[in-house]
Design a protein that fits this description.
This protein is globular. α1 runs antiparallel to α7, α3 crosses α6 and α5 packs across α6. Helices cover 58% and strands 0% of the residues. The two termini are 28 Å apart. The chain is mainly alpha-helical.
């Protein structure tokens, strides 16, 4: 997840629909997902159902209200996707596999950003990254996980949290980098 957020930040800004700009797209996010094969159909069903809700006529007024509201574009995208996932969660009576919520929502953040770009709105790589980070924090918060607990969860999953500074290379007494360290 941290890798996708970093990539989104590095993506060039894009306000031109249909232009191959290297921006984060739903397809580029999906290509980086590592969904186990036994969960792939469930993942695809979640994304498809969420897209149907996202593009439904009933959602248009809510989407417009969200876009007019306070907050940065990234916050609006992230919180909008969380609201979308909450609707889907309610419609399925909570039967969505919890381990697929954040991966599906990540693709939906890219979907929402792509939709807004095609509608002529400016959505930067930083906006997409902020949307992803906002979405993860909101979903984990609803699950009772505080931001302070996230590094611990990542370690339990075998993923190291993003480093806060570059690692210092090991050097020997002669000042040269040590081999094999």
């Amino acid at each position: 997840m941290a890798g996708m957020i970093d990539e989104a930040r590095k993506a060039p800004d894009s306000a031109s629909p249909g232009k191959d700009s290297g921006a984060v797209t739903p397809d580029s996010v999906r290509a980086k997902m590592n969904i186990p094969s036994d969960m792939q159909k469930g993942y695809e069903a979640i994304v498809l159902a969420a897209r149907k809700i996202m593009y439904s006529d009933q959602m248009k007024p809510q989407m417009m209200e969200l876009l007019k509201g306070p907050g940065s574009m990234g916050e609006k995208i992230g919180k909008g996707v969380v609201a979308l996932m909450a609707i889907l969660w309610d419609q399925t009576n909570g039967t969505i596999p919890p381990q697929l919520v954040i991966p599906a929502a990540t693709e939906l953040v890219a979907e929402a950003a792509d939709f807004l770009r095609k509608a002529g709105m400016k959505v930067s790589g930083d906006d997409v990254a902020e949307g992803m980070a906002t979405m993860v924090e909101e979903i984990l918060g609803r699950a009772g996980v505080s931001p302070e607990q996230i590094p611990q969860l990542l370690q339990q999953q075998g993923q190291a949290p993003a480093p806060t500074q570059a690692p210092t290379p090991a050097v020997g007494p002669d000042g040269k980098p040590q081999q094999g360290v």
